[in-house]
TrEMBL record:
Classification via SUPFAM superfamilies: P-loop containing nucleoside triphosphate hydrolases
Superkingdom of origin: Bacteria
Record-given protein name: Amino acid/amide ABC transporter ATP-binding protein 2, HAAT family
ABC transporter domain boundaries: 2-240
Species of provenance: Desulfonatronum thiosulfatophilum
Amino acid sequence: MLSVENLKVKYGNIEALHGISFHVNEGEVVTLIGANGAGKSTTLMSVARLPPPEGPRVTEGEVLFQGKNLLKTPAHEVVSKLKMALCPEGRHIFGNLTVMENLKLATYSRNPGENLEAEYRHIFDLFPRLHERRHQRSESLSGGEQQMLAVSRALMTGCKFLMLDEPSMGLAPLLMYDMFRALKRLNQGGMTILLVEQNAKLALQFAHRAYVLDTGAIRLEGPCSELMDHPDIKKAYLGG
């Protein structure tokens, strides 16, 4: 579904990714793990076509999604036509708008006559707290509820391929597991997911395959069940 080959990326004159290659098959959950500054978020922003100055500058490589070259695709078409969505680190919700208004904003690229009621019901089934607070201003939500809203807003674009950047950041343990239970339901329903997650143990338990990034290069890759037993992974990320 997604194929990245020899991707090199710079911020200014500093190279952040040194020719990484990876792929995500349809229906999979693939996670990118690594220390802060390893290049995980840069990878997501590059795939999502987040343009400079906000995002990184791709200098070499190929990013194909269902055979289409993303590097030659306008960012808005990545969402509207290719059905990809990025839920960025830091949530970036509109605090002065209600939960429902935030969700409705995400549908701007959908067909005007499209009936979205079933999708709203699906969102509120995944995250019942949002249904309870749907008419509240988003700035009044807890951190966990705001993260639920950020994920839900990405889903309301109608995406089939969801990229998540640190969805558990700042969440209490109970809410963190609630979040990943909801993501598991999404994947079981057919959603393909590319995940960046600070909690390596949780990410490896959730995903099918993983790539380990270190200073802009992929050092290890494989099924999560195998990587969890790898001595370097245990030492660096799992407290082994």
